[in-house]
Amino acid sequence: MSAPNPILGVLLHSVGAFSAACCYTPSRKTKQWAWEVYWVAQATCAWLILPLLGAWLTVPGYFDLLQECSPTAMRNSFLLGMLYGIGGFTFGLGVRYIGFSLNYAIAIGISFVLGTVLPLVWTADDGFVDKLPMLYAEWPGRMVLLGLVIVLAGIAVCGWAGALRERLSGRTEFKFAVGVPLAVTAGVLSAVFNFALLAGESLAKAAVEAGAYDLLQNNAIYPFACGGAWVTNVVWGLAMAARNRTAGEFVRLSDRHDGSLAFYYTMAVLSGLMWYTQFFFYGMGHANLGEKYGFTSWALHMAILILASNLVGIVLREWKGAAALPRQVVNAGMCIILLGILAITYGNYLGASE
């Protein structure tokens, strides 16, 4: 096992978070597809094909290894992944109704808190635990706690900026009554993914013992955690396609000839690849944070994701025409989040140096 390197861990988390922030952009090129058709196509790539392929390529004898692993770990990771999957498609729907910036602020803010703090109180394997003292009993933990509070404040500021932008712009295409509940639901259930990973830790350890590179050990968990997400998303997506009579779009496009079917599937694969890339780099980032404060992986990933999502929102011209005040507020929010990330990173560095 290589020595932890928190700074490298944060850089790796950044790659994954920026990839995740961009994963919905290819959908803008698939206008003839109903949203549920696009979602099923990209979900199959992101949560089924790539996790299986990644595990097979990076874990020696992966499928034989599973026969020796705990069925309980596989089951718990899969079931928790199913709950995370519900958060996944409500998250995608939220983007449609309230835009990237505000949806990310609400959903990721909730996921940030729950996914970071709850594992210190309860895990699927161990039940109720008492790990909260590590946040205030020692100086590195107190620095981490300070960083968590700062990031949460920054996320709130970014969310305020998104809401302020829409209120001052007078635009009516956003549906807050629909989008906000979806974002809240997504935030609560998306946090469950961290529990799905924790439930599968024995699979990761078995992978390392089998010769897998320690930075890639989480690849052994993803077929279960992501597989559960795939099941819920595909069942929901196909049900929507049947209800809306859009299932035919899987095999043909309309007569408008806005691109080819092959191009649409390429966009879905690209979206799925970017989504899966966040998992791939999340695992490597997590391995570099070490065991003591490794629980902050989720917090760092979510914090960087907020930064990245706001930058993507700017690139996609969501802030075009916005008043000066919202733009100033979102810039302030991103600076606050960056300060919090630095504090969490420093706390991890101090913890790894002990």
Topology of this structure?
Blueprint: H1 6-22, H2 35-58, H3 62-65, H4 71-117, E1 122-123, E2 127-128, H5 139-169, H6 176-190, H7 192-199, H8 201-209, H9 222-244, H10 261-289, H11 296-315, H12 324-353
Antiparallel strand pairs: 1-2
Helix pairs in contact: 1-10, 1-11, 2-9, 2-10, 4-5, 4-6, 4-7, 4-9, 4-11, 5-11, 5-12, 10-11, 11-12
Number of separate helices: 12
Helical content band: over 70%
The H-and-E topology, N to C, reads as: HHHHEEHHHHHHHH
How much of the sequence lies in strands comes to under 5%
Tell me what the structure shows.
A two-stranded antiparallel ribbon has the order 1-2. With 354 residues, the protein is mainly alpha-helical. The model has no long low-confidence stretch (mean pLDDT 88). A hairpin with a 3-residue loop joins strand 1 and strand 2 (127-128). The chain has one domain. Helix content is 73%, strand content 1%. The protein has helices spanning 6-22, 35-58, 62-65, 71-117, 139-169, 176-190, 192-199, 201-209, 222-244, 261-289, 296-315, 324-353, and strands at residues 122-123, 127-128. It is built from twelve helices and two strands; from the N terminus they run ααααββαααααααα.
How would you summarize this macromolecular structure in one to three sentences?
The protein is mainly α and 354 residues long. It contains twelve helices and two strands. It has helices at residues 6-22, 35-58, 62-65, 71-117, 139-169, 176-190, 192-199, 201-209, 222-244, 261-289, 296-315, 324-353; strands at residues 122-123, 127-128.
